[in-house]
Specification:
- It is a single chain.
- This protein is of the alpha+beta class.
- It contains 4 helices and 9 strands; from the N terminus they run βαβββαβαβαβββ.
- A 5-stranded mixed sheet has the order 5-6-7-8-9, with helices on one face. The protein has a 4-stranded mixed sheet with strand order 1-2-3-4.
- Helix 1 links the parallel strand 1 and strand 2.
- It is found in: Cytoplasm.
- One of its GO terms (cellular component) is cytosolic small ribosomal subunit.
- Pfam families: Ribosom_S30AE_C, Ribosomal_S30AE.
- Interacts with 100S ribosomes. Associates exclusively with 100S ribosomes, which are dimers of 70S ribosomes.
Amino acid sequence: MRYQISGKQIDIGEALQTHVRSELNEMIEKYAQRPTDAMIIFSRIAHEYTCEVVIHLSTGLNISAKARASEIYATFEAAREKMDKQVRRYKRRLRDHHRERTTPVEFGGASSYILAPSEEADEAEDQAWQPMIIAETEARVPAITVGEAVMQLELGGQQMLVFRNEGHGGVNVVYRRDDGNIGWIDPRNTK
């Protein structure tokens, strides 16, 4: 497994890196997953440390957690415990999906844009409101089932996930609602 352990404006020592590698290896081996890489970022805001951990599994799923504490080792341990709880909760489903899937998850490319209005717009443009593209990034859109999309949403701690539905090939969205439930948008089913 490849590790990318870094700190934002703080120095990460060799002892912490070794601790992170050993703890994550132990957690992943316990659940018999096949990780490809892990990204761990430590940062500090005032007196608190923050640890963000993202592990990419070979099945195409991402597991992520974020934690804060006053000590750097305690921060990592809190994030690891959150990830452990997520993986334990979804262990059976992770194994079931892995057995059913004979080929790896396919990812299609898509562009992601951040739009903002032009500051130099004259009055005629203000009425039409012509947005200007501020940022463009590449996004990966997986071809998975709805159940796998919901699981990815939960494991990744995301608010929304765009995916290509394996059942019919159309683009779908699952999202976390304000009431805590999961919503699913399938434009193909609208009449």
